[in-house]
Amino acid sequence: MSQQALAEAAGVSRQTIANIERGSYAPSVYLSLRIARTLALTVETLFPLDANEGDPQ
Questions:
Q1: How many structural domains comprise the chain?
Q2: Would the pLDDT of 55 be above 60?
Q3: Contacting residues for 28 by C-beta, under 8 A, at least 6 apart
Q4: Burial level of 17, CB count in 10 A (0-12/13-18/19+)?
Q5: Is there a domain that residue 57 lies in?
Q6: Range of the domain at 17
């Protein structure tokens, strides 16, 4: 699926999708769910957590 097609299905701009792919934009939970649903994936599959992410320092 192209960035443009995904953007249209999720209701955002193509630039937003590009920024998410680059890691320069963290989508809201709501947008994450819309993107995952569009791609027939789970949010966990689409946005996997790094094993160390969120661990207290």
A1: 1
A2: no
A3: none
A4: buried
A5: no
A6: 3-45
In a domain, 34, yes or no: yes
Closest by CA position to 9, among listed 49, 37, 50, 45: 37
Alpha-carbon distance of 12 to 9, in angstroms, equals 8
Q: Assess if residue 7 is contained within a domain.
A: yes
Contact at 8 Å (CB) between 33 and 12? no
pLDDT of the residue at 46 = 92
Is residue 51, in this structure, part of any structural domain at all?
Answer: no
Mapped onto helix, strand or coil, the DSSP state of residue 35 is: helix
> Amino acid identity of 5?
A
Phi first, then psi, for residue 46 (nearest 5°) are -70, -40
pTM (predicted TM-score)? 0.80
